[in-house]
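It would be a great kindness if you could assist me with a short task in structural biology. The matter concerns a single protein, recorded as an amino acid sequence and a row of backbone structure tokens. Kindly check, if you would, that the fold set down in the tokens agrees with what the sequence suggests. Thank you for your consideration; the sequence and its tokens are set out here:
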Amino acid sequence: MGLTMEQVMDLDIMGNAIMKTSRECLKGRNVEWVSVTETPVENFVRNNELVLTTGMGCGNDPVLFRRFVEDIINSKASGLAIATGRHTYYIDRESIEFAQENQFPIIEIPWEIRFADITKAVTRKINELQQKDFEHSQRTQQHMLNLILQGADLNALARYTSEKISAPILITNRQGARKGASFLSRKLSALWDQLLGSNIIPQEQIEEELSNDPFQTKVHRVEAADDRIILQLPIVHTTNKKKGYLFVLLKENESPEEYFNYRRLVVLEHAVTAAALWFLRESAVEETELRLREDFVWNLARGQMGTWSNVLSRSKALGYDIELPYQCISGTPENLKELYNEIGKKEQSYRDWLQSMIHFIEDEIYYTGESIQRKTMVTYQEGMVIIFLEVPIDNSRETVNNFLNLIERRLMNLLPGVIMSWGIGTLHVGEIRFSKSFEEAEAALRIGKKRKGAGHRSAFSETRMDRILLSLAENEEVRDIVSSTIKPLTDYEKQRKMDLIDTFMAYYENQSKVSQTARALNLHRQSLLYRLRKIESLTGLSLANPDDVFLMDLSIRIWKIGLAEIED
């Protein structure tokens, strides 16, 4: 706890010393060192220092001596011991009264007592107490580490810490979820919940430097109800990543300055270290479980799970019930790189930022499933978020769309501006139902992005025409016909910057009506006619021939769905 002025006065060497101020002035004053100082004081005296003096330089002048006492008090010394008999015959009443008003102890010691003997006795006592503090610190640290290493939870750590520092303790993770607490009354529990609900977790809490101690400078002060103060200490891993917070609830009207002492600081510092170790262990376990879960879902999607009995046993071990009806949804975040550049997270690499964002997206998917009381299985592979969502057999479409609506709303709060594309498989039965639904969701995602672009949903059941076109695009003869029809148009577009393909599609959609098409394209009638003649001359097809028009339309559709990227 450190040496106090009361303990100094109880030393044998101070047996003949006389208190000139009241003994009450000794209370609450710690002694960290002893010095011998004469006037002038200047900056030679530091905080919590017992000052020994002969009064030399004051010449028994009460005014000079009082000024000397005032300087000692202003230096925040622990006390002043004056050897009387040669340079100072007596201590004047005004100086004693001034010290008494400031609750500062003045002690008279006989001239015969050597300062060296006082210094030796005080230093020895300081060393003894420091050794006891060190041993206490070692025992506390060892006990806390043993708690964590033996598998205890953070409730045990919070209770032990609370006993050591005589104050209620709460430990939360970085998001504010309660992970451990000492024994709290119902009133205190309600206070904690109220404060956590009002977000006392944010990083922008005012940081108060309570002393020069580097640990104390990390303590945040939070005003609570009933004139109470909560101290918020960050739980930080060696990589400087914040894992959570440790909260200390002070008594009514108790200030941090009054509360903190050496031993309490040591206990709290060890508690924060032990809690960081617990979070590190928890993170390692969670990451291992997450990797196993994601690998399982990925293998399930690809149909690489072996026998069905093996699939059932592994799913139960991971907490999945795969006998429920599941429908696959595949999604890709399209603009995370752009969002990273806008946010400007210079202190974090894109790879680390992307990994954390994917974890956030997966968390939001789980929370969304819980909010609609549906099971989910999620993994992120090859740039895709793969979701197996539990759905009702008779109304899966509505459930999937409501689920995606909720996800998108949650993601917009997390990542404003994020663009997600989704592909939705269909519901199947049988042992291959997961891989079949995933194949469909992946195909729907791919087709939807080609047909509609990024940021849309495509259900596999709505892609029948596109699948026919894709199938045709795989035929070599069809590809040659499509290429010979489209290439002259794309080459001309690149040279002259004239969009002939979209011009034909508008003409076709407007039932070959020139005036109506011109209005839709915001073109002059003659300009449209010029484009249509150019299309006929480049392709060798006649827009007056229904077969040629059909061939042109089919070629464009096949090119857009399957050949455009290859041509590019």
About this structure: The chain has a mean pLDDT of 84.
